[in-house]
């Protein structure tokens, strides 16, 4: 009898949760990089689209918990109360961090619920405006002539920019590695590049497009397999693969995650809102304007996204191991 009563209470609590989520408490997107960068940009645009998708009844807040290549924000969400109100908006770091860090205070995928994938974004290899190279070939020559003197900015160990720099340097065959300079995100790294304090960076088009367009940075190459023929602004930049780096391909994706144990009623509501948001013409237009492609295939579903992240983790493992000697 007592057991039945407890069961009835638990069912009532679950039902109440389904009825009341999200309630008046805001839903926080934890972004594991600094404000104003590409991941933050996706989060703010998605927060607005999901707010609309939930009938305007939910409040969304973006919290930047940056540091250690995104792993501080990941740890915060892994340990958060699993009530659907604290979510992680992250990128390929979900797949690269486990391979790059010897020790993490959380487990991927075990400590997270996967809500779905958001978009895919190409990266660009860019340089400070004063750099004495005007195209990729000149850049290579300049690096070789100045071996060991140049530096490359990134958003911390395991970040997309770090990964891109690692892969590129391991293929460059410059006799000495460039010094890597970590930042808390590529928003501050971009400021350092614009100010000429760092020489080179690899970053998502969501952060670099407007700077390239305004001529404030030099663009050398894109990291997709082929050049971006559909992108008005970037179509004339070759891909690293076209420049001879056989097999070089890096596209960054973003996804949404919750702490393990978040009730399925909340997860379902959030996934439904995500799917509606990804069809929102305003959101699509904003993302496309920055070179991103909003996901429209089955990876918007939790299981398919989880399987995709697992395949990305396996794909990145040998690349990370090969590039490991630059992992400082
Ligand atoms: N683009 C960054 C990275 O390299 C992160 C960010 O600031 O959004 O991972």
Descriptive notes:
The protein is an alpha/beta fold. It has 2 domains: 24-120 and 251-323, D-Maltodextrin-Binding Protein, domain 2 (3-Layer(aba) Sandwich), CATH 3.40.190.150; 123-222, 3-Layer(aba) Sandwich (D-Maltodextrin-Binding Protein, domain 2), CATH 3.40.190. The protein is 42% helix and 19% strand. The chain contains 11 helices and 10 strands. It has helices at 2-20, 38-53, 71-79, 93-100, 136-145, 160-172, 186-194, 205-213, 264-277, 281-289, 302-323, and strands at 27-31, 60-64, 86-91, 112-127, 151-154, 179-182, 200-204, 218-222, 251-259, 293-294. Strands 1, 2, 3, 4, 5, 6, 7, 8, 9 and 10 form a 10-stranded mixed β-sheet that branches. α6 (160-172) links the parallel β5 (151-154) and β6 (179-182). α2 packs across α9, α4 packs across α11 and α6 packs parallel to α11. The longest helix is centred in the C-terminal third of the chain and has 22 residues, at 302-323. The chain is globular. 47% of the residues are buried. Residues 1-17 have low confidence and may be disordered. The structure holds aspartic acid. Aspartic acid binds next to α2, α6, α7 and β7.
């Amino acid at each position: 009898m007592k057991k039945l009563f407890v069961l009835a209470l638990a069912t009532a609590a679950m039902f109440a949760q389904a009825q009341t989520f999200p309630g008046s408490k805001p839903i926080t997107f934890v972004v594991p990089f600094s404000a104003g960068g590409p991941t933050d940009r996706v989060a703010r645009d998605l927060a607005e689209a999901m707010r609309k998708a939930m009938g305007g009844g939910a409040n969304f807040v973006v919290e930047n918990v940056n540091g250690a290549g995104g792993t501080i924000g990941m740890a915060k969400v892994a340990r958060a109360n699993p009530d659907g109100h604290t979510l992680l908006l992250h990128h390929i770091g979900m797949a690269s961090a486990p391979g790059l860090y010897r020790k993490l205070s959380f487990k991927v995928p075990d400590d997270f619920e996967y809500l779905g994938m958001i978009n895919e974004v190409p990266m660009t290899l860019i340089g400070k405006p004063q750099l004495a190279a005007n195209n990729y070939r000149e850049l290579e020559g300049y690096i070789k002539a100045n071996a060991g003197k140049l530096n490359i900015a990134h958003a911390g160990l395991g970040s997309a920019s770090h990964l891109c720099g690692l892969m590129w340097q391991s293929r460059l065959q410059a006799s000495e590695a460039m010094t890597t300079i970590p930042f808390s995100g590529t928003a501050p790294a971009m400021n350092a590049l614009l100010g000429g304090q760092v020489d080179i960076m690899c970053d998502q088009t969501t952060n670099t497009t407007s700077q390239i367009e305004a001529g404030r940075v030099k663009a050398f190459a894109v990291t997709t397999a082929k050049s971006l023929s559909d992108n008005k602004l970037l179509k004339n930049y070759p891909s690293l693969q076209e420049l001879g780096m056989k097999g070089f391909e890096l596209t960054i994706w973003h996804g949404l995650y919750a702490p393990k144990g978040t009730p399925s009623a909340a997860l379902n509501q959030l996934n439904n809102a995500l799917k509606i948001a990804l069809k929102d013409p305003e959101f699509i237009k904003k993302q496309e304007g920055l070179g991103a492609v909003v996901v429209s295939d089955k990876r918007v579903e939790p299981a398919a996204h989880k399987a995709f992240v697992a395949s990305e983790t396996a794909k990145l493992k040998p690349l990370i191991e090969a590039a490991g000697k630059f992992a400082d």
